[in-house]
Structure formats: structure tokens, C-alpha cells
Amino acid sequence: MQETIKQKRQQSNAIEEIPYTLKELTGYFFKLGYSGFGGPVALVGYMHSNLVEERKWINEEEYKDGLALAQLAPGPLAAQLSIYLGYVHYRLTGATLAGLAFVLPSFVIVVVIGIAYKLFGGLPWMQAVFYGVGAAVVGIIAISSYRLTEKSIGKLHIKSIATNWILWLFFVVAAVTTVLTEQEEVLLFIAAGLLYMFLKAPPQWIKKPSANAILLFGIQFWSFTSDNLIKIGWFFTKAGAFVFGSGLAIVPFLHSGVVTEYKWLSEQEFVDAVAVAMITPGPVVITVAFIGYLVAGFPGAVVAALATFLPCYLFTVVPAPYFHKYGKHPGIKTFVEGITAAVVGALFGSVIVIAMRTIKDIPTLVIALAAIVLLLNTKKIKEPIIILVAALIGIVLKVLL
């Protein structure tokens, strides 16, 4: 009897063997934090290709669960997905280290840029860099969105559309809605998930109405006041807790508070803050640290970043055990599939929105198309190289034009 129990324990340990260490996981997200360009769409694409396809640390189902949960909960998409993927095998420790490792490099970078901004009084060179980088970023996120669509729904051909026409419908509706509203609509994601669940795996209470339903200083490094820090903390907590979707969705909310309500930054300073976020690696939402630095020095940057990312951490790790425990239920699986189709459609729509804001002339269109062609046809040229070359092209074009 004891021998049988021992054998079962050994089998259980073999099943639960993790193909990577906590150190490797932390190292991966730290590297992604300082080398992952392109914003949330590109970053979630990197996580899929690196962790699911290449290293096989995370399986497809775990990734889809994380992507769905990251879109359902308010806060920055890529940061939430990194927290969830850290949670999958190493629970709270993994979630905490993955999230910190992912955000910390870009936080340091934007604080350094903030110091330069204060010291030199503006970033005219930054706009020249962004001219080229912004176009390349469009190409990068377009490819990421394309690959995510293939994995989540299927290749774009007649058989796939005929088989998964409902998911493709969710995809198109979400994409069009995102383009028209320029933000992701979380209610649309939930509706897609519920509708797909009711169609493919209806709960028992629908089949049996009598059953009960289950509810679901020169650089102003230390320039701050206590009053300012309190305002920054409260405002950015709201930004982290109540804004759904990717980094794109948080920009209008930040603008209304930072420029219109509190008048912390001028219109040009706010545009520069968004540019900084777009040309630095890591999550786009890290622009909150740059804004916090301009308003209240380094303490402002720390408070703004903590206030923004702490809610998304909690909104990810608290529901995560339930996703892990009940994720294999047919109703939950179809619910997640429906949400995922809408989520990927929304991400595709975000590509179009960003492209409309970034592709302003023939040179930027050529840079974007060149990035797409290079990424589609070769794996030797990585995204950071494309970003660097695009930045240099942007500077040269701005000097010549």
C-alpha cells in the first residue's frame, strides 16, 4: 500500500516537473523589458513566439487563458500577461518576479530620459527618432497581430472561415469597433465569450431551468511635494484600476488628467511623453513614470509607476487560481475562445489606429512596409535591429527634409 502511494507521488512529481527555473523565467522577462519594442501588441506576440513556440515553457492553453484574463482585467495588457505567465508554474513568487523584471528596465530608461529632458529642455531629436521608429513599430506590431491571429483563430482561408466563422465574426466586429472608437471595449469581449459559450457548451442551468445558475535638482531629481505625490498616486491608481485594454487605451485617460484637469504638463510635453514610451522597450504604459518624473522628480516616477501597475498585478494574481482550476471546463474553454477571438480582433484594430497616427508620408510608409517584409521573410534580423536602423533613418530624413 505504502509503495503504491509512493509511486503515485513520484508520477505526480514527474507530471509537475517545470521545464525552466525561476531564475530563467526572471531573466527572460528582464531581457524582454529592455529589448522588447513595439508596444502591447508586439510584446504579447514576443511572449507567444518565445515562451510557447520556441522554448515550450508555456502551453497554448495557458497562454490563451493569460491573454483572455489580461484583457478582461483593467490595466496594461503586456504587463498583466507577463504576471500571469509568471504565475502559471511559480505562483505568487513567479508572478511578482516576472512583473518586476518586465517593468523595471523600461522604468529606468524613461527616468534617465526624463533627466535628459529636464536638463536640456525638450526632445527635438526624440521626434526625429520617432519619425522613423514609429513607422517601423507599425510593421512590427502588424506582424505580431498576424501571427497571433493564425494561432488563436486560424489561417485566413475558406476552410478556416467556414469552420470558425463565429470566431472570425467576433474578430472582425472587435477590429472594426477598435478602429472606430480607438479603444478596446471590454464589454464586447465578455459578450463574445458568453455568446460562444452558450452556443458551443451551454451551462446545465440552460438545459435544466430548475437548476441554480453560477455567477461569475538641475534635473529636479528630488523635486516634489507631499500634496503632489498624493494627487499623482490617486490619479494613476485610477488609471491602473479603471482603464481597460492595451497601452493605446490609457492615453486619452492620461491626457484628460495630466493636461486638462491637473495641468501638470503642456500639450507638447504630453506628446513627448507618449513618444518616449513608444521608442523605449517594454510596456507603453511606462510613460506614466516619465510623466511622474516631470511632475515630481524621481519620487513622482516611482509613485506613478507603482500606482499604475499594482492594481493590474492584483487583478491578475487574484483570479489566476480560478482560471487555472476551472480552465478545462467546456463552458470556460469556449468562453475563453470567444473572448480570445474578440481580443485578437481588437489588437488588429489597434494596429490600424496606430498606423493612422504614425504613417504620415511616403518615407514612413516605406519604412513600415520594409519592416513587415523583413520580419516575414527572415528570422535572422531581430526587432531591436530594425528599430535602431529606423531611428537612424528618421534622424537622417529630418536633417535632409
- Domain module tally: 1
Order of helices and strands: HHHHHHHHHHHHHHHHHH
Taking pLDDT < 50 over at least 5 consecutive residues as the criterion, the unreliable ranges are 1-15, 209-219
Beta-strand percent range: under 5%
The proportion of residues forming helix, as a percent range, comes to: over 70%
Describe, in plain words, how this protein is organized in 3D.
- It is a single chain.
- The protein is mainly alpha-helical and 401 residues long.
- The chain has one domain (20-204, 225-401).
- 79% of the residues lie in helices and 0% in strands.
- It is built from 18 helices and no strands.
- It has helices at 2-15, 22-35, 39-54, 60-72, 77-120, 124-152, 158-163, 165-181, 186-200, 204-207, 226-242, 247-261, 267-279, 287-317, 320-326, 330-358, 362-377, 383-400.
- The protein is globular.
- The model is unreliable at 1-15 and 209-219 (pLDDT under 50).
Task: Name the descriptors.
401 residues; mainly alpha; disordered N terminus
List the SSEs and their pairings.
Layout: H1 2-15, H2 22-35, H3 39-54, H4 60-72, H5 77-120, H6 124-152, H7 158-163, H8 165-181, H9 186-200, H10 204-207, H11 226-242, H12 247-261, H13 267-279, H14 287-317, H15 320-326, H16 330-358, H17 362-377, H18 383-400
Helix pairs in contact: 2-5, 3-5, 3-6, 4-5, 4-16, 5-14, 6-13, 6-16, 6-17, 6-18, 8-9, 8-16, 9-16, 11-14, 13-14
